[in-house]
Amino acid sequence: VGFPGPGHFIAERELPMKVAMGMLSLLALIGGILQVPGVDHDIARFLNPTFADSRIATQEPTAGSSWVGLVIGAAIAVVAISLAYRIWVARPGLSRTLQERLPALHNFLSHKWYFDEVIDMIIVRPSLWVGQFATTVLERVVITGAITGGTVGLVRAGSAAVRRAQTGFLRYYAAAMVVCLSGVALYFLLTAS
């Protein structure tokens, strides 16, 4: 089975979709009429105050170059629609024949010009690699190991030292106070001379 393929259900046959598509086509037609080159000066004039303070100067193509682009685009559309009609409507078996004669072209087009594979190779895989690196190295080694783990280790070492010093015996506290006061007195004696 050629395009659209087996199990492909055409939604445009149902009434709600016909209404939605009809509204879209009507709005596209109105938008197209409003943007005819050489006729759309009113819209440009209407939108000028919006861009009055813009530092980026908007440059519009001339009406002649816009018409050339429209004619070229319309010609390409007519050729493509005619070709599609000939392949899938006028000669329904032609699509299967072309698929068998030009398998490389069919494969290239059915894979959507390999854009998904290119995006996967250029964006998705490097992003996954950076994420994996951030998880394994930065998160586990640097943050959990050094920053968080180092802080926890310092607190544990300090609390162990304080626990050893806090025995509960008054004589040890008095001795520590005498040693500290002696150190302060020695400091003042040395700095005063």
Describe the protein.
- The chain is an all-alpha fold.
- It starts with 14 loop residues before the first helix and ends with a helix.
- The model has no long low-confidence stretch (mean pLDDT 85).
- Helix content is 75%, strand content 0%.
Gap from first CA to last CA: 105 Å
Estimated structural class: mainly alpha
Instruction: Spell out the helices and strands N to C.
Output: HHHHHHH
Q: Total strand count, please?
A: 0
Shape, please?
elongated
Question: Main attributes?
Answer:
193 residues; mainly alpha
Kindly summarize this structure in a few lines.
The chain is mainly α and 193 residues long.
Strand-helix topology:
Blueprint: H1 15-34, H2 41-47, H3 63-90, H4 94-101, H5 103-110, H6 115-165, H7 170-192
